[in-house]
Amino acid sequence: MTQSHPEIRDSVRRLCAQFPGTYWQALDRERAYPTEFVQTLTKEGFLSVLIPEEYGGSGLGLGAATAILEEIHRSGCNGGACHAQMYTMGTLLRHGSAAQKAQYLPKIASGELRLQAFGVTEPTSGTDTTRIRTFAKREGDKYVVNGQKVWISRAEHSDLMVLLVRTTPREETKKPTDGMSVLLVDMKAAVGKGLTIRPIRTMLNHATTELFFDNLEVPAENLIGEENKGFKYIIDGMNAERILIASECIGDGRFFIDRASAYAKERSVFGRPIGENQAIQFPIARAYVQVSAAAAIVEKAQGLFDAGEPCGTEANMAKMLASEASWFAADMCLQTHGGFGFAEEYDIERKFRETRLYQVAPISTNLILSHVGTHVLGMPKSF
Ligand SMILES: Cc1cc2nc3c(=O)[nH]c(=O)nc-3n(C[C@H](O)[C@H](O)[C@H](O)COP(=O)(O)OP(=O)(O)OC[C@H]3O[C@@H](n4cnc5c(N)ncnc54)[C@H](O)[C@@H]3O)c2cc1C
After folding, report:
1. Which of 36, 71, 101 has its CA nearest to residue 251?
2. For the chain, what is the domain count?
3. How many A from CA of 210 to the centre of ligand 1?
């Protein structure tokens, strides 16, 4: 099968070969951040492909970015540590002022600044973003922020964070989506001066955290776009995020299929390769069919995005299908490996844990089904 961007894919594969399973296993045990991997990707320019050339990036489309993330994941590596460096800057690029873009984008492109923290989710609001409570009160030339966020990944490994806050209480707005704003937070300046970061240990190594804001002062000039219009700015970035995450799932799915088919050919039990048994062979073939179908819709969504066409439904469908296909492939691969699938050194159990996340974050499957049920099929909304 021909794949887009063969040269980029080849370079990514060669880079990833320097970071074998043993590298990820050691980090996983310690829940440590893959600093060396991220630095190498940054140095090679793979994290700045979406930044326009005038700001020092390579100005490529989402097609290049999906190829990069898919190959990272197919190689057994994990882009979750840094994928947000690729797309979080989109909020700044699309809605920031000329001065903000000139100040930050070249440094983000070079990797001097890491903008890979995205603060939306809160413990009490969950998926219902309009109910966030973190509030930024304007006081002269600054905002004073109070509240709490949860599941904010890479906060300890970011210089900047795109933060969604309320600037008008929900009760005082015409629409629940009004009254939210986006602030760019300088993390190094904030920690200890109103921002506390508390890591959350999870079933996968994802550097995720809880954030507590206690009178954190953010300069008013760090407001992105207009006050009270932040929800729209955040939504704008979500299609790209969903398509990119879907491409990671496609990479995971292909990793599991590669590993399972190789193992099924080589592992001999009862005097023959286990892959000769259709009960082993067919689930691998089924995973291949499902991942290939999901990849086609990911490519469709990416094509629409790059053409500037509406792609919300396709981005959602791509994320759902790809995350389900990768999960089916993960379960199949574990089963194909029998007991060895549980051994750390095979990397199957680690990838199994990693790929499960994508049916929950950045958006859970039910919410995607709700989008299709109401926006596409016109049925009544449950919320
Ligand atoms: C490892 C990890 C990293 C993350 N990183 C980030 C990050 O960097 N930044 C960030 O802002 N967030 C992040 N998140 C948060 C993530 O986006 C949310 O967990 C996700 O959107 C689901 O929200 P929730 O956990 O509050 O679930 P809830 O909203 O509490 O939902 C719980 C379950 O109920 C279902 N549900 C809720 N309402 C309905 C309904 N009306 N109909 C049917 N089903 C419904 C949901 O689908 C879900 O399955 C991360 C999460 C994890 C686990």
Report:
1. 71
2. 3
3. 14
